[in-house]
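Hey,

Quick one before I head out. I ran the complex with adenosine-5'-triphosphate overnight. Inputs first:
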Amino acid sequence: MIQAPKGTKDVYGEEMRLWRYIEDEIRAITHAYCYTEIRTPIFEQTDLFLRGVGDTTDIVQKEMYTFEDKAGRSLSLRPEATAGTARAYVERGMHNQPQPTRLYYVGPNFRYENTQHGRYRQHSQFGVEVFGAYSAATEAEVISLGASLISRLKVENVNLHINSIGCGECRPVYHARLKDFLSSRLENLCNTCRERFGKNPLRILDCKTPSCQELLTQAPLVLDALDEECRTHFEELQLLLTRMNIPFIVDAKVVRGLDYYTRTVFEFIAPGYTVIGGGRYDGLISEVGGQPTGGVGFGMGIERLVLRLQEQKNAPITATGPAIFIGHTGVEGARKAHELAYNLRQLGIQAESDIANRSVKAQMKYANKVLAQHTMILGQDELEKNTANLKNMQTGEQTQVSLDGLENYLR
Ligand code: ATP
Ligand code: MG
């Protein structure tokens, strides 16, 4: 038997209902926030990710699915969707439209990861990107969109952590302080962090290894190194979040894994894993060939939200089956059942008739299993009188109804 590739999953049945529930809420919230959808290719030129994600990141160094096409071009399955969205913004001249540009996307990403709970090789993200805005209100808008979604979905125990990692001017100052602090303690860092020390020292801050975490409790804080403008920006964001009644935790450990972040970074963290990661990335658009342009966005892992909802006891949606299952006996009863199911479906009413040639008993067993809300059985008698017994499966109540206008009993 051929199995699905490691780290992938098939979404169907009960779990699909949760996906649809989440996607419906995504459409509703992005609509209210006036964000429009963008769909970019699943594969891009590898160079886009080297520049737009960063060649010192784990994503690019270890996790990318890169291949040559038949003409020898190097292409990669997208490991995230921000770089492609930024490329599209520049390539399609979206900066010529009224600014800012507010976009959202929903779709799959591919990363060659060690698979574990909540970590897959194909995962889906809902994400938003705002291009062409520099104010702290931009972060407040984007963060509040994420917070509203989490609360509409009734996902519990998710906390918002925010931080500022400074800009091109003050971050080098912090880098120097951090390296200074770490240089005498290198032998206490894990192997990965020793590598990061040369290439991307900020990344050391969110290392999960206990010995590194212990050591870092003494490290200088990035917030203490912010210049005046970055500090004011961060304070304004906190003020706006407070005005919006959105609780947050200032957390110096949040630094995010991608090279392009400037100033604000944030995560929505659930027990065990991060569900949303995002921030400001003013350097990204010029990295992919555009004019310097402010940008803020986040990515939300849909599989992880589904897991959270499955782990919660009070599932926000309950299963419902078809409004009616029309059973039948005899050739004419069957024909009438199919005809009535057709008529109800035209009115948008969920209706099923039996197309599996089962006995009446087996049909009713089936109707029970799929949680049909009503059932009826059509036979010779019903056809002659043009009426049937409509059974409410919840209450057990039975009503004689005319076969014309059946919809009136089902709404
Ligand atoms: P992590 O620290 O968990 O590896 P990340 O920093 O790599 O996350 P981002 O690239 O910012 O994550 O992606 C945004 C969100 O996408 C994450 O917060 C998470 O919810 C989800 N996500 C990322 N990688 C995976 C994966 N391999 N499987 C499932 N969801 C993922
Ligand atoms: Mg990761």
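The pocket of magnesium ion (ligand 2) is lined by residues 257 (CB under 6 Å).

Talk tomorrow,
K.
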